[in-house]
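Co-fold these.
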Amino acid sequence: MLLQFNTGNRLASLEVVQRDGCVLLDGRPVAVEVLDAAPGRLELRLDGRRRRVWLADTGALTHVCVDGRTFSLVRHTGDEESEDVAAGGPRVTAPLPGKIVKVHVQLGHAVEAGTPLLILEAMKMETEIVAPLAGVVQAVHAIAGATVAMGDPLVDIAPADAPPGV
Amino acid sequence: MLLQFNTGNRLASLEVVQRDGCVLLDGRPVAVEVLDAAPGRLELRLDGRRRRVWLADTGALTHVCVDGRTFSLVRHTGDEESEDVAAGGPRVTAPLPGKIVKVHVQLGHAVEAGTPLLILEAMKMETEIVAPLAGVVQAVHAIAGATVAMGDPLVDIAPADAPPGV
Amino acid sequence: MTLPLRKVLVANRGEIAVRVLRACREMGLATVAVASEADRHARHARLADETVVIGPAPPLESYLRIEAILDAARRTGADAVHPGYGFLAESAAFAAACRDAGLVFVGPAPATIRAMGEKTAARRAMAAAGVPVVPGAELPAPSADGELDAAAVRATAARVGYPLLVKAAFGGGGKGMRLVGDERDVIGAAAAAAREARKAFGDGAVYLERYLERPRHVEVQVFGDTRGNVVQLGERECSIQRRHQKIVEESPSPALTPTLRTRMAEAAVAAARAVGYVNAGTVEFLLDASGEFYFLEMNTRLQVEHPVTEWVTGLDLVRAQLLVAAGEALPWRQDEIVPRGHAIECRLYAEEPAHGFRPSVGRVLLLAEPSGPGVRLDSGIVAGDEITMHYDPLLAKLSVHGPDRAAAIARALTALCDYALLGVGTNAEYLQAILDHPAFRQGATHTGFIEEHLSDWKPGRPQDEDDALVAAAVHAGLVGPKSEDGESRTAAPPSPWSGLGRFRLRGLA
Amino acid sequence: MTLPLRKVLVANRGEIAVRVLRACREMGLATVAVASEADRHARHARLADETVVIGPAPPLESYLRIEAILDAARRTGADAVHPGYGFLAESAAFAAACRDAGLVFVGPAPATIRAMGEKTAARRAMAAAGVPVVPGAELPAPSADGELDAAAVRATAARVGYPLLVKAAFGGGGKGMRLVGDERDVIGAAAAAAREARKAFGDGAVYLERYLERPRHVEVQVFGDTRGNVVQLGERECSIQRRHQKIVEESPSPALTPTLRTRMAEAAVAAARAVGYVNAGTVEFLLDASGEFYFLEMNTRLQVEHPVTEWVTGLDLVRAQLLVAAGEALPWRQDEIVPRGHAIECRLYAEEPAHGFRPSVGRVLLLAEPSGPGVRLDSGIVAGDEITMHYDPLLAKLSVHGPDRAAAIARALTALCDYALLGVGTNAEYLQAILDHPAFRQGATHTGFIEEHLSDWKPGRPQDEDDALVAAAVHAGLVGPKSEDGESRTAAPPSPWSGLGRFRLRGLA
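Predicted complex below.
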């Protein structure tokens, strides 16, 4: 059995060596001892380190809290399409639900990485959304005054090193 | 639909009048409003009183905590046999698990209500078990040094106002 | 104690509504909560004896609707209103409307709120009372369509000098505030601040203030009653801020000498007396590296960080608020207020510190809270709650008390390790990074602390990430322990939430 | 702080093990828990860095096995042992064995434990030091087969006078104690006490003590270090007892005048100095109605009720225990110890107060714990735990602090309302009855309080019982609310534990 999780920092693979005591994490063996398991909670000894862990699942996402530090791990399914958007591709999406206050760019504008694209208001705070990379604005989905949900497309940017229209 | 619960103090009956708002408790109407319901928790308004309630079931037993006061309600099934033992009939049973330290009575002894029957040790405390009624000891199940579970028979007493042997 | 109060309506939500409702319960006062439709089943709404739903989720349609709140008070027969902090807490109009409706407003008089609420007027009043204020200047009002006179802004800014801060005259909590480094940015910053201020506080007036380099934010808690008594309850240092909002507060301040503490306390009492202050209030100062301090603003309400003062003084500020509002004398004399030990508060926010502190939203899937000696958690949420974009992202406040600063830091770090909230991103790990930073441990705090020390902070220490991955694999059933009877079985039940009994496994030596 | 300690083994279980482990974590000390087989997954066993299972459930085969504990310390490389209270905490043999094994014992020297542990020798030592003791007399030792010399017992009892108490010479916590009203009962009581004492403390020696009518139990917390410093941390009144075991404790005592407080504190310090006391200890006194007080015994360990003192002094006793054990000087001077406000502790027991306080057992099906300002819960359990007959029935301790006694009572009552434990009977409702009793509110407390005021107490106020019945009917699906969309649906999910999301219903006005 093999599992893959995207941590946000990396794609990690886990493989079982010995069902009651050892896994390979990215090829490196980790000794696992399960001391206690209860709904939402695990007590582990990992390579001798005692770890108190809280867990919760939401579909493909496993939320894990290890001694006060929280991780949201995406179960890797091999669907490269969705990976691309999650990694922040040429489409800029709303990082949280809110209201568009002002749109700074128009179709065809050249932008640098960091160029302000628009202002999103959420939780009574204005957040400036900036271009993640240099390129040309290829589509503006955002309209001032509109309410957007998390993940809604805002602006598409054709990267500077790619031919426009791709 | 009718429900009956034994509270330890009484056998109470509950009957629905209006599914979304009124029950009869022992024939008396109570206005019920369910404000919130979550696993193990209810927020109610009963005849206008706001009540925070915690609940847990174990088979026929429903444990209820109402604003810091706890009740263990026995769902009444009509099985009169078990009722009799629960009410403390002529059989004296262990009120909690423990170890018999000393047995004071023997077969044929006459006892009054309150006569010490034996000493049970539980949680490092000695508890004296006394006769619940006057009568004659008809059977002694307890042996000094033995470990007993909750509900195990200890002593049977033939009530004084009943012919012996019954 | 027989108070003229019988039933208190709490015009707020979240942890502060819970805090005030608890105080009322302990005093034997009946309670009324108000809730937006999104908050019908929120923790505060469930804690009160009665709850009135006052409108849809957006605050302008619920918690900021004065008429709806007064109507709730009328319908429930409440005779007093506690505003908490935020929302209408510093609305002179609300305080006046309560008074006009025959309700006791738990806070200062409307005139006091108005005088201190307009930051520019407050600066003038304080200067007149001999309290030092930060050099600054007011801006001409924006035009009817919200446009500022650019030339006038630039001229005023030049007079104040760069760097400077644009601040909302009626603001607070960092909203409507902008730091401007040079002339190029001043117009945009002033416009944005005015826009935010209009939205948050209903008035877009802004002013400029000299930006002090690496100042500390130190504030003094004051309390007055209707008999003319005014006391101070010591200081809180609140220098650790992100986006101009406090996230870690402590008392005593590691920066104050006894002399400086006395001077600042005297200035705070003078400020309170100058405006005839009644009930709980806070005088905020900026303290510069040379030991000079300047009046910043006065908050005419209970502060988020009041637990810090409650820990070190051993007093109950909300209880005292209710007593004073009922016309009682202050329950303490100045000489009875003696601080002890060290307290630290950490604000737990639904936000992503590694992504510009952007708010996070979602459902609280799991919540485990710390407890123990010297640990207090003021929380407004329970597991299952939906954290939405409608409200301030403050989830809970962890406050601790210890014999000294080092012990308090250790206690807070341990408690943060024991706090688990899954489903919504929080700043819990970031707070640990702050408290664990050598500069924080040394007390070298200032309002630029986060920019200086933690601007490139990233969550997820590699060892923790690795261990989280292995834990997720165990949870997914990849690894299973031996069971008590020697047979191997999966560690995770079919769903983490099914089954009451705990699933117990062998493994301890 | 660099201590010579690195890793501490906590030789206990339950809430006190949790308390000590927390202190160690905060001080950066590595921790080792010991657990019986029944406790492998107990809260304390999970909190430590390492856990060693030391034997089967019965204490004589686990927590009382000195060799097993020393072996656990050796195997884990622990360099210090904290005994908590109960079990081996007052075993001079254990303290000596730790010392001989090169381990730091967190407590006084073996000789001190021995001197104070034998109550009869302690009485003699205190009398010699000028501390007043309760009139009483020792009994001849029982024969090899445990039989007492009846004639000698009767003669000694006649000399002491009735009513009298039979007490275990090596006892504590009410075990091996019997009240005897007249001659007829003295033999049986002495035999039962000796039997209990042998079982609980390994020695059946008992003695007789004059029974004072309606005395108060007032004790003084003392603390000494290896440099010869001794301080006292004020008193605790622990008069509310059932079966000679404390259930409600408070500080300050409502009975002490400033003069009496000073005299008692001086006597306690004299007692501690007389035996060269090091680490935390408690000198217990009986205070009679005339204001005379008598030495009762000295407990050479941390007390169950130490949170009361931590609340009013603001100090951390366990942290200080570890510092002093490491050879440090006491972290406080006497003049720095200033009590403030009022604290009350309630002991939550698994027991049936309406049935002679008999212990209850079972599984904890649901646990909801109070929190908030001035509220502290020291708990040894979590939901899912099995409460067995093997150990002391103490589940948790609720302690509160308030500005005065009335406020503390109100806070404790509110917190008790918020404590819900289902599946195992507790004394939570009984504790409410105590705190709410007019005599308690007036401070008219004495060790016979429960017999005098609450002997015929029954749980279940009729209104609460009715409401519980209706709630059970709703839970069973008899009554359902209207759903948000107007359709009727059942209030209870198929199982109360299934489903993560909360089931939210319409109903708020």
